[in-house]
Amino acid sequence: MKTVLLAGGLGTRLSELTIEIPKPMVEIGAMPMLWHIMKCYDRQGFKEFVVALGYKQQFVKDFFIDYSLTSRDISIDTATGIVRPHNDVTDDWVIHMIDTGRDTQTGGRVLRLRDHLDGETFMLTYGDGVSDVDIRAVVDFHRKHGRIATITAVRPPARFGGLVFDGDLVAEFNEKRQIDEGWINGGFMVLEPAVFDYITGDGASLESDTLEALARDGQLAAYRHDGFWQCMDTLRDVRYLNKLHETGAAPWLAKEENKNDESTGNWRSRIHWLGLGAKPARTGT
User: Fold this and answer.
1) Comparing C-alpha atoms, which of 197, 196, 194, 186 is closest to residue 222?
2) Which of 31, 79, 175, 227 is most buried by its number of CB atoms within 10 A?
3) Across residues 173-195, what is the average pLDDT?
4) Residues 25 and 283: beta-carbon distance below 8 Å
5) 56 and 19 in contact (C-beta within 8 Å)?
C-alpha cells in the first residue's frame, strides 16, 4: 500500500525556518522531518511513498537523490568518476516525488496524485507530524468499517496549565494533561479511491471541503489513538522534538534509530544556524 505525504505547503506558521526551506525539511536530530515521518511507516513495513511537492520542492528532491549515497560509505575513483558504495542502503524505500503546484490546496494536491495511486486504497499523512500510532491497526480498522476514509484521531499536546479561582486568588493550579484535551485530526489516514469524487480541483481543501463532506455522508471513520503524537507548528515544537531525539526518547523511532542522532549525509543543519540546539549534520567538501 502506498503512502502519500503532503509536503508542498508554505509552512507559514513556522516562517522563521520555512523562508529558507520547506517545512518538511526542518530538521529533527539533523535529519528532515519528512525522513522521520517515513520512518514511522517504514518500521511497520510500509516502504513506498508518493510525496506531494510544491514550495521549494528542489530541497526535497536533492536530499533524496543524494541520500542513497550519502547514507553509506563510498569509494570514488577520481579518474573515472565511478562511485562505489560499501554497505547496504539503510532504508529500502521507493519514493515518487510529484510536483503538485506551489499554491495548490491540500485536497487539490491529493487529486493531482490520482494517476500515481493505481486506483487502490492508499494511506496519507501530513509532512509535519510524527506518532507511535499502530498504522497496521489503522488499516485494519478502516477495512472493518468499510468507509471511504479513516483518520487517526489524537489528543493535541497540552500547552497550558489549568486554573481554578477563588475570587481573585488561585485555588488550584493543575498542569494540563494531553488526555484532557479533545480529539483532533492527527493525519495517518487511510483512503479509498472514491475520495477523488469529493475533490473538485486545485482549490479544494482536504479538511474543510473533502473530510467535512465525507463526514456528512457518513463516510468518515476515526481511529482513536491515545499514544504519542506531536505536530511541528512552532519553534517550541521543533525544540521539543529535537530534545526527545537528543535524549534517545523519540517514541516514533525504533530503538536503534534513537541511538543515531546525526546524519551521515551532506544536508546542512539550518536549525543549528538559528540557535535552536540541534546538532549540525556532517557536510562534504
Assistant:
1) 186
2) 31
3) 82
4) no
5) no
Is there a contact between 60 and 34 (Cβ–Cβ < 8 Å)?
A: yes
Contact 109, 220 (CB under 8 A): no
Tell me the per-residue pLDDT of 10-44, one tens digit each, with 9 for 90 and over.
Answer: 888 898 889 999 999 999 998 999 999 999 999 99
How far apart, in whole angstroms, are the C-alpha atoms of residue 177 and residue 160?
Answer: 9
DSSP per-residue codes, 66-110: HHHHHTS-EEEETTTTEEEE-S--S---EEEEEE--SS--HHHHH
Find out if CATH 3.90.550.10 is the number for domain 3-153+182-273: yes
Q: Has residue 189 got a pLDDT over 90?
A: yes
Cell of 108: 487539490
Rounded Cα–Cα distance for residues 240 and 67 (Å): 26
The 10s digit of each residue's pLDDT in 213-238 is 999 999 999 999 999 999 999 999 99
